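Late entry, written up from scratch paper. The run itself happened at the end of the previous shift, but nothing got recorded in the book at the time, so transcribing now.
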Amino acid sequence: MAPPERRRRSTQRDIAQRTGVSQATVSLVISGGAASTQIAESTRRAVLAAADEMGYTANVAARSLKGGRNRLLGLYTFESVFPTDQRDFYYPFLLGVEEEAARQGYDLLLFSSTGTDRDAARVGPREPGESGTPAAERSIYVGGSNRLKIADGCVLLGRNVRREELSALVREDFPFVFVGRREVDDAELSYVAADYVAATGALVAELARLGHRRILYLRALEDSEPTRDREEGYRRGLAEAGIVPDEALIRTLADPADLSIERVEEWIGGLGITALLVEPTEDDRLTEALATMAGTRRVRFPADCSLALLGDPPCWTPKSRDWTRFSLPRAQMAGQAVRVLIELLDQESHEPRQLTVPCAYVPGDSIGPVPENRAGARPEPGTGSGPESDGRPAT
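Output as recorded:
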């Protein structure tokens, strides 16, 4: 029996014939470069629509290969720059993806698509007559098309997520895995995430073992998935230690610079806290504020108050203070994300997969037993004094 006829892949010439424009025009539109702005909006839309209908953007190169793959994985970050500095928080993620892709026999393609603020906010082409602003931000759908389709699938990472773009990727059935737990309203996503719940709960348990009952949790201002997981771990840890949660001990700061020595002294004296759990911020301002505070010796960690970080400082170096903390297995998470992505590619349907990876406890030097002179000073929930004793402060 003769083998079935292989479908010929679409070309720019095919798109040109369908839309009635020149092949050069099609090339300009597809490339999306600066020269593409010279093309009339109606023409650009027609070309992109035809390309999508004919499957041109859906990995043209892969169609000529056995099995429909080009063994090329993408890596896309929503952060402004790729983490090439080894001290960067994201660098181990990049390293983990690169090493696992090579181990699996795949090449790696780094995507750095940017667009205007309006491009990034809209998943789709511009309205006629619209012009963008000069501010460029990361966007998967620059010009209304998904450029990740050059690759078989993609690993995504970054804090500043455009959730409408994640939803669009799901609707396209484009295989991707996020490093970190991310949610959208209309779909389930595949991800590999750190187990913040268990790690935070374990730190609370360790502090409780050391005698602490008044443990303040300083959470991030943004209500992101990692922050919600940390808060859940904090509450679980308290419950398992038999400690009644006090909502006045869950705090937020609009600006990390607001973490002053006076504020911590107020928490110690007014709320009676003996331990502080701090969620690290994107930059070093929070940990720098803590280091500056410790240098004054007005508040000593752990002599006056124990302190633990709920994660790694953004740019930790051997010269930095060895804070008690848990550490994310960043390279391991990234490598696992690559393996999950390849498993998705091997499936006929891309059913979402969601994995959590344990964090590692780092003992550090900033927690200890409750100070002897404060062992009996434990206000009951809701009895703290001071301007912030009635619950979470306004941010």
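Residues 177 and 341 are 6 Å apart (CA to CA).
(Scratch paper discarded after transcription.)
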